[in-house]
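Structure representation.

___
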Amino acid sequence: MSFPKPFYRWRPHPWHGLSPGDEAPGIVQAYIEITPFDTVKYEIDKITGYLRIDRPQSTSSRPPMLYGFIPRTFCSERVAALNPEGKRGDGDPLDICVICERPVSHADIVLDAKVIGGLPMIDNDEADDKIIAVLKNDHAHAHIEDISELPAVYVERLMHYFNTYKMAVGQLPSLAVKEVYDRSHALRVIEASLADYRDEYGD
């Protein structure tokens, strides 16, 4: 029996064992943690690589699109330097939101996504940028090259989600996302996160 090359005898760690993609930073491989159908916030367990329940959402807010991260990225000094209000990176892989015309209800998947922009989010003085992308071969959105071509309602939904997803009932939001950046800046953020990863973990 012959095996494909490369062949993983064991499941690789989604953050450290998968590739960001041969065409990064323009087209990246993304690992998806949560979907628009999830009322629970799942997050990768950094030790085991399995999905862990971070918290049940306390409000009705749900992610408006697929949400995960780009493997072998790390948000540290270089990423923070690109965010004017960031004093440091958040120490996590770089987040990504992926737009897809068809409903995808299953997380713990990988996909190829075309980068079109991003959100410069700050959480407790930490740069916590969210890259925005479209599914590479999506029938409705694959033609989009920059976030300026995206219908405004998509951006509004993303901003609403990230402004409310950490809210506790009866409390005011602690985050504020007020703008977006274009594809060229998003590519610089991804390149910075790849370099931060190499500094922290090596090649």
